[in-house]
Amino acid sequence: MSTDTENGDDRMRKINVRVPEPLLEQIEAQWERRGYSSKSEAIRDALRDWVDPSTKLSDETLDDLEESREQRERGETVSEEEARERLGLDD
Known about the structure:
The chain starts with 20 loop residues before the first helix and ends with a helix. It is mainly alpha-helical. The chain has two domains: about 1-55, Orthogonal Bundle (Arc Repressor Mutant); about 55-90, no CATH class. It contains four helices and no strands. Helices cover about 50% and strands about 0% of the residues. The longest helix is centred in the last third of the chain and has 15 residues, at about 60-75. The chain has helices at about 20-30, 40-50, 60-75, 80-85.
């Protein structure tokens, strides 16, 4: 999987980024398994998603949203305050 030049622009500039050690360990454990040729490529891909996030929702999510709307219309929902109270959650 290579998305380095998908927009036709192969000019690269180097930046320095500091990340917490646990995050770096996760990146190092995942980049190759996810099909990237390097950690840099994986991070560039994540940055592209951050700049231009995907707005496509899965069919499962869309179904859940529709069910939620229907429950609201039938009066089967409760306020946040009531839900917190029922679940014993503090602010």
